[in-house]
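Please predict the structure of the following assembly.
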Amino acid sequence: MQTRRIGDVQVSAIGLGGMPMSIEGRPDEQRSIATIHAALDAGVTLIDTADAYHRDAGEVGHNETVIAQALASYGRDTSEVLVATKGGHLRPGDGTWTLNGSPEYLKQACDASLKRLGVEAIGLYQFHRPDPRTPYADSVGAIRDLLDAGKIRMAGISNANPAQIRQANEILGGRLVSVQNQFSPAFRSSEVELELCAEMGIAFLPWSPLGGISNAGGLGSRFAAFAEVGAAHGVSPQQVCLAWMLAKAPVVVPIPGSSRPETIRDSVNAVDLALTTEELTRLDAA
Ligand SMILES: NC(=O)c1ccc[n+]([C@@H]2O[C@H](COP(=O)([O-])OP(=O)(O)OC[C@H]3O[C@@H](n4cnc5c(N)ncnc54)[C@H](OP(=O)(O)O)[C@@H]3O)[C@@H](O)[C@H]2O)c1
């Protein structure tokens, strides 16, 4: 498995996104565990989650719990696996996503994630999304305090613009290790943040890299170039998409979501797919 760097940790160049295993339309727990085990078998050492990946209000942290169970039941050493979780989003249970970026809330949320993950320090803790009711500096200040207190080993942010990336890195004293923003063939406006991360040497984790849970399967029909390049290599359009992202910069670590062993196994093969300059230009223009 090829690796990339998040802070001082080497992780698989493709991570596993946990959201489809815990929100609406999720599979039963057995299939989720099998999916996580398939990812580990394939060499995945980065799993992305959040306390807000759940369905009903009473099951906050569902995804963190499933991941903790899957790691505990794997039967082999998982100490190299980086679990990246987030705080700052909430789901009241009616399908909506709400925000709380207050320092007090973030600190409580981190404590709860620590318990669910069963660790002494969270490998990577990401501030999920700016909350307009809390100054950004205050939210990121809470993440800095968690870092200083040793409750989290590394700090990241998500859904941030270039000014927020610079501000967060400053507040964290140069210790910002990752930015997680939406980026896919259908959503390219975060290329500016990707380029900034490449310049700053900070990992960039594209979320919904295949277009999101409901659109991922149809990526090749929406973007024919990805299907055509895939056909030329005998691989799926989704694999082409992830290889195209990996080729953008060495800081890019896509985290495709999965709820089936087959899909994460297919996605992981993107690390070995070499696309030509001509193909990459064509996909950029698609
Ligand atoms: N920071 C944020 O605000 C934020 C927001 C959204 C998501 N995220 C994170 O980003 C991760 C990825 O985003 P996402 O799950 O929304 O969308 P996505 O990765 O674009 O799409 C997920 C879907 O893609 C399918 N898939 C995966 N690999 C495939 C392959 N090789 N061939 C065909 N289909 C494939 C999966 O199907 P199956 O379910 O059938 O396996 C899955 O349901 C999430 O899981 C979450 O960890 C973060």
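The first strand starts at residue 3 and ends at 6. Residues 210 and 216 are 5 Å apart (CA to CA).
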